[in-house]
Specification:
This protein is of the alpha+beta class. The strands form 2 sheets. A 7-stranded mixed β-sheet has the order 6-5-8-3-2-1-9. Helix content is 17%, strand content 37%. It has a single domain, classed as Jelly Rolls (Sandwich), CATH 2.60.120.1140. Strand 5 and strand 6 form a beta hairpin. The relative contact order is 0.21.
Length: 140
C-alpha cells in the first residue's frame, strides 16, 4: 500500500501537534474535556514540552502507576499552565501556577495518582478548586 504526500503530511502534523499522546474524554466536576493522556514514563517526561500554544480547553492528564509524591517543572514548556494534583479517587487536593521555562519543581503535598495541566487561569475561570472531582468515566 502506498501513502500519498498529503496523508504523510497529515500523519506528521498530527504526531507533532498531539505529542504522541492518546486523547481521552474526562469531566472535571461537570465540565467535559478532551485531554491528552500521559500514562507512561516517557510521555510523562515529555509532557507539554516544546508546545507554542494550547487550545482554550486543552490540557494533559498525567496518570501515575501508583499514588506518588511527585514534582513537575516547566523545562522547554513555553505555555503558562496551572497544575492540579488529585488522589487515587480523582479528588483535587492542590492547584498551583507554573510559569514558562521555570526549572523549579512544583511538588505535590501528598501522593497523587492524577495530575492535570491546563492553561493558566483555566481552573479559576471554571470554578475548579480543592475538592473538585476528575472523572475519567464521564458517562457513568
Amino acid at each position: 500500500m502506498q501513502i500519498t504526500r498529503r496523508q504523510l503530511r497529515k500523519l506528521i502534523t498530527e504526531s507533532l501537534n498531539e505529542g504522541g499522546c492518546e486523547k481521552i474524554d474526562i469531566n472535571v466536576d461537570n465540565i467535559p474535556l478532551n485531554v491528552e493522556m500521559a500514562n507512561t514514563e516517557p510521555l510523562r517526561q515529555k509532557g507539554l514540552m516544546n508546545r507554542t500554544h494550547l487550545g482554550q480547553d486543552d490540557g494533559m492528564l498525567f496518570i501515575h502507576d501508583t499514588p506518588d509524591m511527585c514534582g513537575y517543572y516547566m523545562k522547554n514548556t513555553r505555555v503558562p499552565l496551572d497544575i492540579a494534583f488529585a488522589d487515587e479517587e480523582g479528588y483535587v487536593f492542590q492547584i498551583d501556577k507554573m510559569n514558562p521555562n521555570d526549572l523549579n519543581s512544583v511538588m505535590s503535598i501528598q501522593p497523587a495518582l492524577y495530575v492535570l495541566e491546563m492553561n493558566q487561569g483555566w481552573f479559576g475561570d471554571n470554578g475548579i478548586d480543592i475538592g473538585s472531582y476528575i472523572n475519567l468515566n464521564p458517562g457513568k
